[in-house]
Amino acid sequence: MADMVFSLGGNLPVRRLGLGTGGLVGPGYWGPRGERADALTLLRDAVARGVTLIDTADNYGPDLAEELIAEALYPYGDRLVIATKGGVVRTGPDRWHAAGRPEQLRAMCEASLLRLRVDSIGLYQLHRFDPEVPPAEQLGALAELRAEGKIRHIGLDTVTAEQLRQAMESVPIASVQNPYNLLDRSSAEVLALCEARGIAFLPYHPLGSGALTRESAAAVTAVAGEHGAGPGQIALAWLLHHSPVLCPIPGTGSLVHLAENLDAATVHLTARELALLDGLAG
């Protein structure tokens, strides 16, 4: 398997298998999920198990996921990178509204700094391009925040290859978040561009929103049986093998599932198994 460490922006190393925090808040990314103490325990356990990249967003909750991270993990260790996002506002479960005016992005970033209790955010990601605001203005706002030291690296979420190319002409881009998994290769062109430019690709829904574990293909089941692993572990292991820039961030609210997800890093797929899995989305 390729190196399990990726250097964001060329100077911020993280373990490639991280943790997403959408599973710590309620359905539709709205309100709490379960007991607060359980979420705090999971975050601490993830770091204790070696996670160094935690992905979140200001609108998870809203605000709640960032607050949980700070409550559980502050003061942060030197190796831990918190990646958060801004650029959308929420009015209810699964209700998202782009908000990319420069003054909005600045206010969102500064609010995240306060909630996370930091002076600088390691990776700050534009959650969506606002179609009502010129992209140059949105990227310019992030570039200003980066120049002020409030952002170390800039990332993008849900972009086309052309949007990524255009963005790279304006500011250095350290990461992209797009859907990508065993059954969904729709962002293959974006992944190829990330590989060519040394940009981290953080695939969201790396388990296909559960589809890979609920209705796993026969090939996944067969490979899982060879390794004494679960289908979800094979799906994550495939991502880690598939490209050295892929940095999966599976989310969960379960300590058991957290352990299973992180153990995927120990699954070493053979060339035959990789070829079999590569063909699933053909």
Structure report:
The chain has 282 residues and is of the alpha/beta class. The protein has eleven helices and eleven strands. Strands 3-4-5-8-9-10-11 form a seven-stranded parallel sheet, with helices on one face. Strand 8, helix 4 and strand 9 form a beta-alpha-beta unit. The longest helix has 15 residues. It is globular and about 55 Å long.
In short:
With 282 residues, the protein is of the alpha/beta class.
SS field, number of helical segments: 11
Strand content: 15-25%
Rounded mean pLDDT score: 95
> Helix share of residues?
25-40%
The total count of strands amounts to: 11
Overall, the morphology is globular
- Cα end-to-end separation: 23 Å
Structural class: alpha/beta
Order of secondary-structure elements:
EEEHEHEEEHEHEHEHEHHHHH
Characterize the biggest β-sheet: 7 strands, parallel
Strand order of the biggest β-sheet: 3-4-5-8-9-10-11
User: What's the Cα radius of gyration?
Assistant: 18 Å
Low-confidence spans: pLDDT under 50, at least 5 residues?
none
Which keywords apply here?
single chain; 282 residues; alpha/beta; seven-stranded parallel β-sheet; two-stranded antiparallel sheet; 11 helices
Lay out the secondary structure.
Elements: E1 5-8, E2 12-15, E3 19-20, H1 36-48, E4 53-55, H2 64-73, E5 81-86, E6 88-92, E7 95-98, H3 102-116, E8 121-126, H4 135-147, E9 151-157, H5 161-168, E10 175-177, H6 188-197, E11 200-201, H7 211-214, H8 218-227, H9 231-242, H10 255-263, H11 271-278
Parallel strand pairs: 3-4, 4-5, 5-8, 8-9, 9-10, 10-11
Antiparallel strand pairs: 1-2, 6-7
Helix pairs in contact: 1-2, 3-4, 8-9
